[in-house]
User: Fold these one by one.
Assistant:
Number 1:
Amino acid sequence: MGSLNCTEHVNAVTCTLQVSRTAAPYQAAQPRSRIYLLCFTLLVATIVGTALPAFAQVDSNEVHVQPREAPKPAVPQADPSLTTHTRPMRVDVNLVLVPVTVTDPDNRLVTGLEKENFQVTDAGVAQQIRHFSSEDAPVSIGVIFDVSGSMANKIDKSRDAIVEFFKTANPDDEFFVITFNDKPQILQDFTDRIEDIQEKLTTITPKDRTSLLDAIYLGMNKMRQAKYERKALLIVSDGGDNHSRYTENEIKSMVREADVQIYAIGIYDLNPAMPEEAKGPALLSEISDWTGGRTFPIDNVNELADVATKIGVELRNQYVLGYRPSKPGKDGKWRKIKVRLTPPKGLPPLHVFAKTGYYAPSE
């Protein structure tokens, strides 16, 4: 049986073991059983003899048992937290969403209106409102905070106002803060922790000039990472721009292309000393009006906190109208939006604030 040992170096290990296990009983059998044992041995020898030529070139020092193939490592899945701030993909690009604020003659918010109270035209054509909401949906919010030298005597009240603004937030809101003087910088990236922002605001020292336009550009660019469909910027500044690389026309074009509401608190001097300070109110008003936001000019820093709170509450109490343009354009041109209101009987004349248009998608 020694000739059968060679099968230990091939895939016939099991067969060899079977043979070795059955050989002992047959050796102790009666003489007639030896005939069967001889036949069985010849059969095994024939099988082994057939297999050996195929392994004639195999080194006896090699391991001839085929190792089991190691399982392929699983492809790692992306951690959802790594994509928290990526820009969401809009599946239905034909759906136009229009946030709307309604106020009464005393500038108080008007809530409780229904879809039937609103009419929307797109490029002069009446549209069917398919989506209507007045719920407090989460918002991605950025604060653009002027920390130039002229803010030195207003910085404390301005900090307090920003904190009050954040106190009106939805628990699911996310925020970032950009400060600007000679150049803008991100003071706090997206977070939902107000205390993080409050702590960093205490480290600010007003100095240098005012790069307002550059700060707006950085804020609009940062909004590309927002995780919510609704997005808003709050600008807190005391004057016009005097140190930006970007021009007014460039920023105006960028604002019109983006789907971001802009609010501003302008802390203006009644008698501005510089030409850019005199232009500041008009610039912020024009930009905010395009987006459906508003600019609140004040001349007393003690009003800052109340105005900031008012803006925060306004963001929480907006109507959102959604429609699919009946004549969608694919030419990339500006399409004018007009929102009209038919108030219930008994109400005074109401004011409507909504974005004035959008750029149609391009082919």
Note: The first strand starts at residue 96 and ends at 103.
Number 2:
Amino acid sequence: MYDVIIVGTGFGGITTSALLAKKGYRTLTLEAANELGGCAGKFERQSFRFQAGATLGMGFEEGGIFSQLFHELDMSVPPVHSLHTVMDVHFSERTIRYYQQKERWFEEIALQFPKDSGAIVRFFEEMFSLADALLSFIYKRPMIPPKTMKHIFEVIQKADRKLLSATPFLFQSIAKRLQHYGIRDETFIAFLNGQLVDSVQTTIEHCPALLGAVALSIFHRGAFYVEGGLATVVHALAQRYKQLGGELRMREKVISIRKERHWLVTTNRKQTYEAKHVVFNGSVHSIFAILDDSIKRSFSIREEKEKKRPAWGAFTIYMGVDDDFQTDSLYHQFIIDKTKPMSEGNQFLLSTSAPFDRQMAPLGKRSITISTHTDPLRWWDRDAYDKKKNVLAKHILKHVHETFPLTNIHVQLIGTPVTFARFTHRAFGKVGGYIPNGPFSLLSTHTPQTNVEGLWLCGDTVFPGAGSLSCALSGWIVADAIAMVK
């Protein structure tokens, strides 16, 4: 019998696995796919490596989450390169260069928005201050929302004056803060909407101020290019996990989780494993398909309610091309029409491999991942599927070619929510966590500890939310909590 079974090898799951193995727990980690990492995974075609979803590295700065995690696990950080330019944001009439260094970014603000630059700088300074207050608390890995008196006591212990100073902003939106500073510039608001949709899945009107503050400050703490893609980080953690004695089984999909005296986890290979704890690393809306009915009846999270909570899907284009890029920026965001929603190809992110990265592409060539937010439910009409796919791809590539006239495309593949459902086993291909629906959405966050003893959650649909850093943090919170169980 195992102490802990971990289902899934996304950042949350592999973090939990490695930390528990280091603590001496007997662990088994099960991955349904051929590749590690889920939405942070990779695949290869014709000498090109493609990043399935997430592309930009964060948390490798001194004191950052991944720096802390690798130190905790006695590991060396994989090769990463700090980005002077985070990304170029392309509008029809101009391009804004988003710099990592705060002072250089403020110079760009003065150049791009001379009329409102003072107010915009004050807005960002407020965001940085709020983020400092919140992250100093979150990095202590509290169990939020607290489930027990013990959790409440721990939260009180970990809170400090910085956090208390942020409480007046708890129920405000980013839009409210912009209104406070009198900022109405259409292009700047579109810029913010593009950044927020990519990081926290929503725009200024519905984004809680505290959540938005973290999203708008995180690149200025550290933005990195990771050689070989973010999957390199996952693979390094998995290798360390196995060195520490953990068991990892690939292509073994969990089809049932039930509880008798202990937890019983059954896979598609007709194997049943027993454990004291089960950690599910996946979206909450995906767990109901494998939970036994007796567990679902006592589970505080209700399946029908979760089905109705809005979440995005991803439409992706993967390309292997000749290195024709006349720019030093590796990341490019396109916003086509500032007045339209930041989805369905109106806003998309293009990530290119570095010209020196031989893991990603042969010499003289680049690997590209393009992604846009899409309604995941619109992709399940089989008769209209190919037409929708081709129309959206054509629309996106038209705008790409206007900026980067790529002359020789060696590989071109398209992914939709159907693709993500197939390869990452996420219900309806929903990715990126839930969409916040206003300042009060923070109150509906799921905690990593469930009401069912021994069942834990990590990943983008529980606190602290979406993104590689948040998912790793959720896994760390779970590892801490399991270690505290007597």
Note: Residues 77 and 146 are 32 Å apart (CA to CA).
Number 3:
Amino acid sequence: MRSIVTIIFNERQSLEYVVDIDHTPEAQSMAQEWLEATWVRLECEPLRHSGKVLLLDKVLGVADSLGYATFVQHEDRAREFAEQVAIALGRPVIKIDLPGLTVGF
């Protein structure tokens, strides 16, 4: 399956990645584990006052922590992020809007 992942950092900076993904339950589970491990490694903070962290919160936190400069300077890390998000969410179109704190499909 092919997926398009768009990351909006601000009104002037956005990036788009087209990735081919493995759409198996095993791959999805591994991608969710990758997001969890990366979220912890980057010391991301919960977005909700309750402290509960949902999968979409991890997507937003990791994208924000890595930042636009990392995505531009390290194509391999950017592509890995896009692939892992696409596999974890299993959607053909994913829009990560950091200013709006939303992940849309």
Note: The chain has a mean pLDDT of 94.
Number 4:
Amino acid sequence: MKPTQIQSKTVGPGDRFLFARILGCAVLLCFVGSASASAVFDIYVLRKGDGVAVTNDMQAHHIDHFSGSADSVTLTNSWAAPSTDPDTRITQGGDFSTYSQLTRSVDGNYLTFMGRSAEVGGSGGDTDHVVGMFNLRTQTFDTSTRVLASEVDQRGGRGFRSGISTDGNDIWFTGRNQRAWHTTLGSDTATDIARNWQYNRIGIHGGDLFISRRAGTTHGLHRWDGLPTDEPTDEVARFADLGTGWDSDNGQYGDFAFVRDYLFITSTNDGPDDISVYARGDGPDEWNRMTGPGQTLTESIEGMPMFSSAIDRGDHVQLFYSNDGGGDNNALYSVMFDLENEAFGTPIHLADAGEGYGFAGVVAVPEPSTYALLFGLGTLGVVLVIRRRRRPGKPDTV
């Protein structure tokens, strides 16, 4: 009878580190759970001014880049938009309460803001409307979209308030000329997609176009089904009034953002300017204002605040905003909204615009978590090791 053969296996380099890789992934899993508490952000802020005084004259734009967290940020870069050459410049009046929203494109690659072709220190007059597009990948400006004032019937207004793009080519914008418009990159014409309402800020959510209203007897937020590019044939059918609880007497609504079943929107009502919270109602277009303790933010706000980012952090929503006072003390803030308790926390002062400057729109972009990245690499390592062990190879040795 043959003696019983005891099988043993040569330990290879991959096997030596298998346990270590699995253990490393387990440890990293623990870190992932707490990563949101120390999340890092890229924060882009539109800044206007000349370093001397913030006035209502036409002023140059800068985009400032801050890197940091909810508690602390550091200015890491700043880009000046063209402001001298009449063929490329973009400027804007210093009225921070209504102008210069900053938005991020749907594909995430572009920042959009509005301006005029007027010279610095002058007035908007009948100069062209300009769409400022900042490419986040190349860190360059494109101001080739210069819509003639006669095309958009400016009606004596100083300029357009808000613009947004899907992909850097298609652009929608609004203005105090009581119109909303669509155009494309590099164009000198635009198509009015909505008429006879005084619109304020514009945004895209869930593939639909949203615009806030700030004048007349009907205030709040309007939604278009999809992203219109043609002239309206039936204005009433084009939009739906969103919700109840809007201040119909004195309300003016500005920047807004959706997170889960909540809508965050800036407003000017019969009291202090604020960031209000609305909860989703029964229907798709029903949003009801929340009026409980801590559900309206007024602290650190002077003038209608400006933001374009409300970021889902799991058990919190994080907002970055400027207090939009329009003066030299204009500042950048962060605040948390506790989803469990449905209340704002205490705003944290992050940065000042500096003397002679003012912050306007804000866009915050979460950076990939380092822990999540390491966890992904570790998981990939385990998968590769398992696949290697299952792959047919040399027979085990005695």
Note: The CA atoms of residues 47 and 389 lie 57 Å apart.
